[in-house]
Write a structure and sequence with these properties.
heterodimer; A: alpha+beta; Alpha-Beta Plaits; Ubiquitin-like (UB roll); 8 helices; B: alpha+beta; Immunoglobulin-like; 21% helix
């Protein structure tokens, strides 16, 4: 505390050289001058530290002595302020920097996620982005409680979510459930999840409403939760069982018989883009995508797992001309077939489940492409439990 | 009143009133913190200062602090604070 007070008042490091230095130190003490760090270097040299105001009292004491005094260093706030007075622009710059830092501290710059193990990071990032939580937003616009509630609603796998705003950083703390809790403990029935023909039914609890060979539509009741127990009492519980059925799925894919291929003209351009939060500053001209191919290279600033909103991108534009190239029918058909299967996979069909597969090939009405329809028959457990 | 009588009276007064004699009798006080720091309060001036020996005058005589690498970290009319390796403190 004493040193801080001394720094605030300003102090000097002084070298005293000459005979009878102890006498001089005593005289200074008599004037209530407090000396700090009194160091004896040699027999006739002493280094001392004293306050600036006390240094002015030192001069009269030296009259008539053979002691020389020289200032070795100056410390403290008065000297620092004096230096700034000479460098007004430096002081203004520092002040502006301080104000700028204070302004920037109103924004969120870092978002860190903790506790998530199975939840896909991209999905989580997309969700918090939708909810207005992203690097570069004003801190006061964030509503942690609302975001927490929405996250729990969107991701059933989450058991708990907490948003903690700490200065310019937001911590998203998540806890996932050990396993998805099924709600099949209450009374309810088993319904058909899709259309199909029942091939096998095993009732563990309840009463079967269909039999082998029955044709069912999506939503039909398969096993009722009502049954009679061993004493003939009617009971209503959770229907349990396995209902396997042949189910048909259909996927459609298209393949073009002609495609436009880019041919480089040899003219290339480069652009840089610097992004801070949601603001992007392009350096150089942009070119339209219909005449140029674009390749981006990005550098993100990252601190550990934190998402830092600073990004530098190098964008290369390659000027091209598009020429029409005919595609062989086999290749177009193959492409259409692959797309049809992609559609089936999106519907939940797994290749190993397929019992039968049928495909039809048609030319599209405009004659520019081929459409392939793939129909598959799979054996699937179609039972879906709903509480009553 | 002679100085010796004066001192005797002050000592008796301090004893009777149960006052700290260091204040009443103008006595020097020496504080030692292990062998690394010493503080001389109520001294009457620095007589000699080297890194091996520091002599200070007091009402009771010369106080001599002997050691090595000694340095005065604070010096005022009432107090001398010394740091370093202190080996001996003597009253002469």
């Amino acid at each position: 505390m004493t040193s801080l007070w001394m720094w605030w008042q300003g102090y000097v490091t002084v070298r005293l050289r000459g005979p009878g230095l102890e006498r001089l130190l005593n005289k200074m003490a008599e004037l209530d001058i407090v000396l700090q760090r009194v160091r004896r270097l040699t027999g006739d040299v002493v280094i001392i530290r004293l306050k600036v105001k006390d240094f002015r009292l030192l001069r009269p004491l030296l009259w008539g002595t053979q002691i020389n005094v020289s200032i070795l260093d100056k410390h403290g706030a008065p000297f620092l302020l004096g230096r700034f007075r000479l460098r007004a622009f430096l002081a203004i710059g520092l002040m502006l920097s301080l104000l700028f830092v204070m302004y920037l501290s109103n924004f969120i710059w870092f978002i860190e996620v903790g506790g998530s193990q199975t939840l896909p990071m991209e999905a989580l990032k997309g969700a918090v982005w939708d909810l207005g939580l992203r690097a570069g937003v004003v801190r006061s616009t964030i509503e942690p409680r609302a975001i927490e509630a929405e996250l729990l609603k969107r991701f059933p796998v989450l058991a708990w979510a907490q948003i903690r705003v700490k200065g310019v950083k937001v911590d998203i703390l998540l806890t996932e459930r050990d396993g998805l809790e099924s709600g099949d403990t209450g009374p309810g029935h088993l319904y058909a999840a899709s259309d199909g023909v029942v091939t096998e039914i095993l009732v563990l609890r309840g009463t079967a409403h269909v039999r082998d060979g029955s044709t069912v539509r999506k939503g039909d009741m398969l096993i009722s939760g009502e049954y009679y127990d061993a004493w003939g009492q009617k009971q209503f519980g959770a229907a349990q069982g396995v209902v396997k059925a042949r189910v048909w799925y259909e996927g459609i894919g298209e393949g073009a018989l002609a495609k436009w291929e880019p041919v480089p003209t040899g003219r290339n351009h480069r652009q840089y883009a610097f992004t801070i939060g949601s603001i992007t500053i392009p350096i150089g001209k942009s070119y339209p995508r219909n005449t140029h191919l674009r390749s981006d290279q990005e550098w993100h600033l990252s601190l550990g797992r934190a998402l830092v909103p600073l990004r530098l991108a190098k964008i290369d534009y390659q000027e091209v001309e598009y020429i029409k190239v005919l595609v062989p029918r086999e290749e177009a058909e193959k492409t259409a077939y692959v797309h049809a299967w992609e559609s089936l996979l999106q519907q939940g069909v797994r290749e190993e489940q397929v019992l039968k597969e049928r495909q039809t090939v048609d030319f599209m009405a405009d004659g520019n492409g081929i459409r392939v329809t793939v129909q598959v028959e799979v054996l699937d457990d179609i039972g879906l439990f709903f509480t009553h | 009143m002679r100085p010796a009588v004066n001192q005797t009276l002050k000592r008796k007064l301090a004893h009777t009133l149960d006052l700290p004699s260091a204040i009443l009798l103008d006595q020097a006080t020496i504080h030692l913190l292990g062998d690394s720091e010493a503080k001389i309060v109520n001294h009457q001036g620095l007589v000699q200062y080297t890194s091996a020996c520091i002599n200070a005058q007091s009402a009771q005589g010369m106080i001599e602090v002997v050691g090595s690498a000694m340095e005065i970290v604070s010096f005022s009319s009432s107090e001398i604070r010394i740091v370093g390796k202190i080996r001996q403190v003597m009253l002469k």
